Amino acid sequence: MRAGACAAGVLVAAGRSASGTDGSHDKGPGGSGGGGASSPTTSEAPRTASVGDIARERAREACLGMWQDIADAAETPDWDSPQLGRYATGDALSTISRALYADHVNGLVSREEPKN
After folding, report:
1. SS (H, E, C) the chain
2. Are 84 and 69 in contact (CB under 8 A)?
3. What is the model's pTM?
4. How many angstroms separate the CA atoms of 71 and 39, rounded?
5. For residue 111, what pLDDT is reported?
6. From CA 25, how far away is CA 34, in angstroms rounded?
């Protein structure tokens, strides 16, 4: 099986709240800005993952999923496997399918699992 670039396209929709607040509460209605420890603690809670972290993880999972699907299809080689379209589309899917078809014509099969 030929090696190639990871051509997984991942769309990550990252929305912001409609309120447009940034977490600071120094000018609330009727508030003096010096209000107690409970408000800053709630608004300053640490985030567990940023949008960028989530996007990177989804892209990584898509790339690994695509390569696993290619490896599975390459065992026979099945250039028309419906699995191939889970993570690849357009030119990437066409390239993968053509490579698997060429392997089929040449009698090549894959026997090993992909290694990271």
Report:
1. CCCCCCCCCCCCCCCCCCCCCCCCCCCCCCCCCCCCCHHHHHHCCCCCCCHHHHHHHHHHHHHHHHHHHHHHHHCCCCCCCHHHHHCCCHHHHHHHHHHHHHHHHCCCCCCCCCCC
2. yes
3. 0.56
4. 52
5. 87
6. 10
